[in-house]
Each structure stands twice: as C-alpha cells, then as structure tokens.
Amino acid sequence: MGKNRVTREEDYSKWYNDLVVDADLAENSGVRGCMVIKPYGYAIWEKIQAELDRMFKETGHQNAYFPLFVPKSLFEAEEKNAEGFAKECAVVTHYRLQNDPDRPGKLRVDPEAKLEEELIVRPTSEAIIWSTYKGWIQSYRDLPLLINQWANVVRWEMRTRLFLRTAEFLWQEGHTAHATKKEAIAEAELMNNVYATFVENFMAIPVIQGLKTESERFAGADETYCIEALMQDGKALQAGTSHFLGQNFAKAFDVKFANKEGGQEYVWATSWGVSTRLMGALIMTHSDDQGLVLPPKLAPYQVVIVPIFKNEEQLDQITEVVNNVVKDLRAAGVSVKYDNRDTMRPGAKFAQYELQGVPLRIAIGARDLENGTVELARRDTLTKETTELEGIATKVKNLLEDIQSSLHSRALAYRDSHITEVNDFEEFKEVLEVKGGFLSAHWDGTAETEDKIKDLTKATIRCIPLDNKKEAGSCVFTGKPSTQRVLFAKAY
Amino acid sequence: MGKNRVTREEDYSKWYNDLVVDADLAENSGVRGCMVIKPYGYAIWEKIQAELDRMFKETGHQNAYFPLFVPKSLFEAEEKNAEGFAKECAVVTHYRLQNDPDRPGKLRVDPEAKLEEELIVRPTSEAIIWSTYKGWIQSYRDLPLLINQWANVVRWEMRTRLFLRTAEFLWQEGHTAHATKKEAIAEAELMNNVYATFVENFMAIPVIQGLKTESERFAGADETYCIEALMQDGKALQAGTSHFLGQNFAKAFDVKFANKEGGQEYVWATSWGVSTRLMGALIMTHSDDQGLVLPPKLAPYQVVIVPIFKNEEQLDQITEVVNNVVKDLRAAGVSVKYDNRDTMRPGAKFAQYELQGVPLRIAIGARDLENGTVELARRDTLTKETTELEGIATKVKNLLEDIQSSLHSRALAYRDSHITEVNDFEEFKEVLEVKGGFLSAHWDGTAETEDKIKDLTKATIRCIPLDNKKEAGSCVFTGKPSTQRVLFAKAY
User: Fold this and answer.
1) b vs e for B161-176, b when ≥16 Cβ sit within 10 Å of the residue's Cβ?
2) Which of A31, A144, B245, B424 is most buried, by CB atoms within 10 Å?
3) What is the pLDDT at residue A450?
4) How many CB pairs (< 8 A) connect A and B?
5) Cα–Cα distance for residue pair A191/A144, rounded to 1 Å
6) d(CA B335, CA B396)
7) Contact list, B72 vs chain A (CB under 8 Å)
8) Contact yes or no for B156 and A95 at CB 8 A
C-alpha cells in the first residue's frame, strides 16, 4: 500500500487529499464543495467534540440550538458582519417543488412558492442569536449569558478542500453576553485559552496564541484572538478564533440591559468557534508518507491486536490469550480492537492500521504463545519490538502516554525551528520561499503595507503573539518605525 | 405562578405552548416555523441523544455525516420519496448576496449568482446517502453497512408547533444497507425495538409497536414500523419510525453488490429516525397544570436543594451541611443543583423548579439544622415530607427510581384505559369525541375506507399492533370482512 502513495515531498497537496480519502476519513460528495465525513473520520470528530464540550461546560457554558436560517433583514442588520459574509451565502428563495410538466417524473421549483423574504443559510449565527438575545436580556441579572451551539454552517467557498475549506462544515460557536467590556474581553481570552489547551493537550499540536490585525479580524469584531498552528509544508493554519465583538451586535439588534443603578446600557459580546477544520490540522501536523498518525487521545481505537495464525486451532489458542489482554487493556482505560477477520491477511491488516494511524499495534502468533511474548509496533516511530506478555497493559498505557507527548515534542521542535526572524524584505521573500514557516518581522502597523506584502508574497500576518516582547525596529517592507515583531506566513 | 397558568382542561393546546415557553424549553424564533431550543430544553435533548447514541453503538452502528444539501437531480431519483416531500422543501437557488443599489447598506440576492442546479435542504437523507453508498458498496464484504447521522432537517410545514412540528428540527437518521431482505427486515425491527425500549425505560412513556398502513407509510418505504404513544388529551403521537425500504433506493441509485457466488444484486435498505418531537411527547405525557414533570433519567438535574435562611450566618451554616449532602448525592450518581441565590425568595425558587419539573426538591432551614432533618418534595405527586438528614442519599436514590417507575405506571394506566374496542361507526364517533384515545376497530384493509374515516372523523389508523391477535370481524365502517382490529386515533 505504502508503495503507491504520493509522498509529502513529491506533492504535499495530493498527499493530503489522498490520505483523507484512503484513511477513510472523508470524501467529496455529489454536492459541490460539501464533504461526507466517513465513520472513521467522524469518530475522531466525536472525540474532539466530547472533550471540548466538557471544557465548555466546566467553564460555565450551556448548549442551545438556534435556527439554520437567517432572514435577510436580520442578516444585514450588523453591516460589517453582513458585508464580510455576503459573497458566500447560500440563499433559500422557495419552499416547494412541483411536478415538472415538461419532464414526467421530474420536479421543478414551484414559481408560486417564492418566499416573501429570502433566508440565508447561516454562515455564522451572531445575527440570529443576537436577535434572540434581545428577548432574553432585560437586566444585569440576566448576564452573563454563556451559550454554545454545535451546528452546521455554510459558506459558499469557490475553492474547497476536504476538512480545510468546505462549503458546509460542522463547528461549535459560542455566543456570550456580558455587562461590561472588561468581562467580555476576559471571556474572549478565556475561550482562546481553552482552545489552546485543548489543541496542545489533546491534539498534540503546538499553537501560538495571538491577536489578528484589523484586516484579518472576524467581520463585526473589535478584536480577534486566535490560535495558529504550523503544518509540515511550512504553511500556517488558523485552528480557532475567539472574538471580542464590543457592542456591535447589541447596537445592531438593540439589546440593552438595566444596570444596577437602573440605567440602560448596551450589552457586550463575544463569539468563538472551532470547526471540522481541526481535522485538517490534525492530519497535516502528525501524518507521514505511510499515512495517518493519530495522537492516542483522539484515536478511535488506540491499540489494534492482529492474530497471526495458520489454522482455526491456532486462532482459538491466540484468541484465548488475546481476550485476557483486551480485558486488561480496557480495565486500564485503553480502547482496543481485536481484528480476527479471516478474510484478510495480517500484512494487509498491518498496512490498513498504519494508514489509519492506530497508535499501537500488537501482533501475536504461535511462537509468541510459546514464548509468552507479543510484537509491539509504534505508529509514530514505525519501530517494532518483541516484549513480554506479562504486564502488557501497563506497558501499553505508558507507551500511549509517550506517543502523545512525543508527537507534541516533534511538532513543537518543527514549529520552533520554523520561526525565523527576518530583517529586510529580500530575506523575507527568500526565507518564505526556501524555508517557509513563520517569519517574525517588524511591520509598520498599516493595512496598506500588510496588503502589499500579501500581494507580493501571498504571506499574511497570522497574528501578533500575545506574549510578544516590545522591541524597537523598522518595518521589513517600508522601513518605518515599529514597536514589535509580528508573525507572517503563507496560510491555509 | 401556578395561579395564572391555563389548565389542560381549559385549553390543552395553550397549556402546552405556555409550558414549553415558561419552563424555558424552547421558543419561536424570528424565522417562520423554526424554534430556538433553550439551554434547559437542550439539556434534556442531550440526555436523549447520549442514551440513544449509546444504544445505537451497542447494536453495531457508527456515526457519520452527509451533506445538508441534496441536488435536485438526486432528490428526484427515488420518485415516491421525492413526491412525498416535494411540497415541503426549502430550496437554495443562489449562492451570493450583493449590495442593494436602491437601499444603501442593505443587501439583495445577486441575480448573477444563480445555481445551475437547485439544492434542496434535506428533509431526510436517503437520496444523498444512497448516492454515496453507491461508491462504498461493491461486494457482500462491504455489507451490512450500519450508519447513523445526527443532523438537522427541514420540512416546510405550514402549521407549526414547538417541538411537535417545526420547519427545522433536530433528529437522528439511521441508514443501513444489507445483502438480504430478511436481514434488512430484522434491522428495521431491531431499531424499532431499540426505540421502544428507550422511550419506555428512559422517557417513561408507554408505546405500542406496530406497522403503518400503506397510506401512512414513509414515502419510499415498503414497510414502516412505528412506536405510538398516547397524550393526555387523548390524541396519539408517533414517537419514532423504522422503515424497511426494500430495494427502492438501491434501484434508484443503482447500488448493487457482488454476492458470494459472484452475481450482482441490488442492496436492501432500512432507515429509522426519532427527532426533537420526542420532547413534545415527553412534555405532554407527564406534565400537569403546575408545569413540567420530568422522569429522573432525563432531568438535567434530578434534585434541587433550596436553603431557607434569614441572614448570611444561617446561609453559611446551611451551606456547610448541604455541601456534604451534595457530595453524597453525587457519589450516589445523582445530579444535583444547590440554589443558594440571595436574589430570589425560596417560594419563587420552589415555583420555578416545580414549573421546570425537577423530580425532587430538598428544602433546608434553621430548624431543620437543629432537628437533623430536611423537607423533601416530590414533583410527580406534589407531596412533601420531613425526613432525616441521615441516609438522605440512599433515600433520594430510591425515590428517584420510584418516580421513574411511577410516571411510567401512571402513563400506562391512562393509555390502557384509553384503548377502547368499538364495533360500529356510531360508537366509533362517539368514543372518539367523548373519550378519545385509541379505538380498536375492524377495518376492511382498503385505503379508501381509511380515507373516508379520516375525512369524517379526523381519526387515522395509527398502527396495526405487532402483537395483534387475529380475530374475524367486520369493518367498523363498511361492514366488510376483516381479520384483525387496528388502532385508530386522532393524532399529532
């Protein structure tokens, strides 16, 4: 199997697409730009969801559900937000089909069933949610309102790629309302932190927390916090964003509250989201030319056990031993699959699980039974060892922890070695082309310079890191004075 | 609070709507026919989801996700299914908005951005899924394919009611593919059983398992299994359906598999679903004139503890005791909320939790501290007792079990006393009007008779019970011979 796969070196983009399809994660559907998330891919997404949902609830948030459709008049109420999404909106205009008189057995849109007001399929839900919050918020006692929604959204992108950019995607969107600016900013920062913690600890992906520049901000936000990751091809990927929305939506939808003194004030807002795009980040951070590599915390099963047998009698003997191993592993909290199919050879199974990124593989044959051993193979390092059956559960548990942290260390080393300080524009262009990664450079703070650099190099400012140190310098492009470096990169 | 509520007797429909809104379960949105599911309502839905998801996985199903949109050409491929849903389809025709030259700051649909082929917002996903399965199924080795999806769907209903009938609703839809007819029928029956088990054990709602008549079948199904419940106003509610789809979708989308002998055969299919409609069934089965009544297994919190205090010192003393009670209850697997807000009086809290159906309320005041007692109130019976603090966790746990089974027994007694055998049409009409409930009557087996009865009485055949006994008789309407009774009712 490995033999026919395109390598990252040969064609990174094809490597990625082939991997998503071959590892049974997702595929393109019959609907332009929309994907089908296959069971193996969806099982990973479920693990992402479960842990994030736990973290959201732990930080005081509740889930709710708001409509898929946004009437156009609500959609356009917050002008910047509307303008930002207008060009990629799927619009429902009719509510009925009828038999097509010209094509028996076929249907056409019933021209009589035109909606009085068009409905936008939500590209994000600030508008519908803030029009609802108006009815929920009267007094400071109703605040803060801390709500999250798991939903599908649609953005009509012209160039789509599985997980990374699809017309429909799954995500969560938090929408909170606060009495003060300070509290709203603290919430936006808290949730960006939750994202960073999750992505680092569960996905083993190192991220840089930062602020977006004005040009890169969410449409309708006063400030956008983000977490930025670096892929193996040297391109950055925005893995999550958390927005301080000021009073923009409260003003657009007239959401005021009575403060303790009895005065009326506009409510302060945040919103924050991560999506199935995280799947793309996961795949591109850890995988290799042999296929997917999964951090144990997100693997649908962490261990697969493959019996090597010549006949049914041998299989029975092996299964007897394996049943105990499975029991011990499950008791230790390890998820395990025993693949005793007799329709597939061990070698083909090995290849499949390698391609699908199962963290550990245990093979056990007749000789192992005699010796009281098993063969243990790590997916991340592709190394194998023969080890004692005795104490295998403890060994596996330790190995899984080691794999989880090794993946993070490896990705961190790559990321850190791909943050390059550059001090003039020639160097900027050369490092960008030859080495890639993040370029740490001085910038004069204008959108104009940002645009020009983007036009010339395709690099954008990914973020102004939150832990940035102040440092006097001159803009890498205009030479004008600057107080800090920012991170540029080409990005997904 | 109770005082101003409309009673079931006075206006059942208004009682229901008020309850849904006042208990903070859901509300109508700014989008015609679409609801907002509020956090308290959504928390119940999450419990429904979690348990069903567990049951689906236990029976070998995996989750996946398919596109929201169905291109019209795929939608119309299975003609009966398309015809069944054509009249209630939301249709996306455009993919972009633009500035409206006549209204500065406002948007209009960009006439240049018309889709070549219209997209139907899925009312159900057989079409998009079977067009996908075509690529997944080649051989008998690929079968069975056992997949479920949690998703939102849209059916453009003209008359909507919160949870019971909304333009958009949340549901799960299972879609399975099998090598044989027998296996597909067994799957449809299995999943109808899973639904019945869940609804009886978790929701405490008694259901009758049955088959739909041809007129009431799912569009595109060869057989529809269902579970039917009875509401307190004597109307039936279809709580879940499971369809044997024959080879209809396999033929429409040309999905064949190579059998063991190498021949090509069409695949056999099932689909099955339950939706947020279950929330309506839950509310209408158990609630009373004081508000919601929740079975403990679905209550977002099973116990609420309300301190009765005159000053902060008393509150501190009570809290010290309560903290231990909370710890004990959680250790016993009971979910509990301690409401120590000082902005609301105990009486108002009592009213709120009564309205929201919290199964057990514990009140504890200064005198209780002296006596080592608490006041324990059951929501289902509205009874109170003073009980020892000692051993409260065990007592609560037992009471919760008792409430769960009492609710079921009460609903079962009501349901069973509302199945009436009727033998002529005058009796049919009278019982239907005066008593309501299920009418067990002979029917001549024709759609014509079914239609006429529906026109005259609004009663439909809810199902032919699976455990029906054969019994010769004559049709309640035409007098023609019949071999078994079926269940008629007015229905939601």
Assistant:
1) bbbbbbbbbbbbbbbb
2) B245
3) 97
4) 189
5) 15
6) 11
7) 97, 107
8) yes
If asked whether residues B276 and B130 sit together in one domain, one would say yes
Q: What share of chain A is helix, strand, coil (3-state, %, to 5)?
A: 40, 30, 35
A126: which chain B residues are within 8 Å (Cβ-Cβ)? none
Q: What is the pLDDT of residues B410-461, one digit of tens each?
A: 999 999 999 999 999 999 999 999 999 999 999 999 999 999 999 999 999 9
Residue A382 near chain B (CB below 8 Å):
no
Q: Is B93 on the interface with A (CB under 8 A)?
A: yes
Both A58 and A137 in one domain: the answer is: yes
Same domain membership, residue B260 and residue B193: yes
- Min Cα distance A378 → chain B (Å) is 26
Same domain assignment for residues A22 and A162: yes
**Cβ separation A43–B30 shorter than 8 A:** no
* Pair B175, B61 in one domain: yes
A53 within domain boundaries: yes
Chain A positions in Cβ-Cβ contact with residue B67 (cut-off 8 Å): 29-31, 34-36, 168
Look up the ipTM and state it.
0.97
Tell if the CB–CB gap between B95 and A90 is shorter than 8 Å: yes
Of A39, A74, A118, the CB nearest to B63: A39
Print the domain residue range for A438. Answer: 419-489
Cβ-defined contacts of B373-380 (< 8 Å, 24+): B374/B325, B377/B350, B378/B403, B379/B293, B379/B294, B379/B353, B379/B354, B379/B403, B380/B286, B380/B293, B380/B406, B380/B407, B380/B410
* CATH code of residue A350: 3.40.50.800
Listed residues A397, A431, A462: the one ending a domain: A397
Do B360 and B379 meet the contact criterion of CB atoms below 8 Å apart?
Answer: yes
B39 touches chain A (CB under 8 A): yes
Task: Check whether residue B147 and residue B222 sit in a common domain.
Answer: yes
B141 touches chain A (CB under 8 A): yes
Strands B223-230 and B419-421, how do they pair?
Answer: unpaired
DSSP B131-167: HHHHHH-SBGGG--EEEEEEEEEE---SS-BTTTB-S
What is the structure's pLDDT at B158?
Answer: 87
Q: Tell me the mean pLDDT in the region A343-350.
A: 95
Per-residue pLDDT, A345: 95
* CATH at residue B463: 3.30.110.30
Task: Summarize the confidence of residues B171-189 as an average pLDDT.
Answer: 98
Residues A84 and A199 in one domain: yes
- The answer to whether A371 faces chain B, any CB pair under 8 Å, is no
Predicted pLDDT at B2: 47
pLDDT at A1 over 80: no
Residue A126 lies inside a defined structural domain of this protein: yes
The residues pairing with B394 across neighbouring beta strands, listed in sequence order, are none
**CB-based contact (8 Å) between A345 and chain B?**
no
For tokens 């697969």, name the residue: A304
Q: Is A43 on the interface with B (CB under 8 A)?
A: yes
CATH number at residue B168: 3.30.930.10
Q: With an 8 Å Cβ cutoff, are B42 and A62 in contact? A: yes
pLDDT band, residue B259 (cuts 50/70/90)? very high
Select from A239, A259, A286 the last residue of a domain.
A286
Q: Dihedral (C-alpha) A340, A342, A348, A350: value to the nearest 10 degrees?
A: 20
Q: At A343, which amino acid appears?
A: T
Closest chain B residue to the Cα of A43, Cα to Cα: B63
- Cis-peptide, bond into residue A206, ω within 30° of zero: no
What is the predicted pLDDT for the residue at B3?
Answer: 57
Q: Is A29 on the interface with B (CB under 8 A)?
A: yes
Same domain, A388 and A312: yes
Domain membership of residue B93 (yes or no) is: no
- Name residue B485's amino acid: R
Chain A CB contacts of B94 below 8 Å: 90-91, 93
Q: Which of A27, A69, A134, A166 is most worth mutating to test chain B (most B CB atoms within 10 A of its CB)?
A: A69
Name the residue facing A64 among B39, B69, B147 (closest C-beta).
Answer: B39
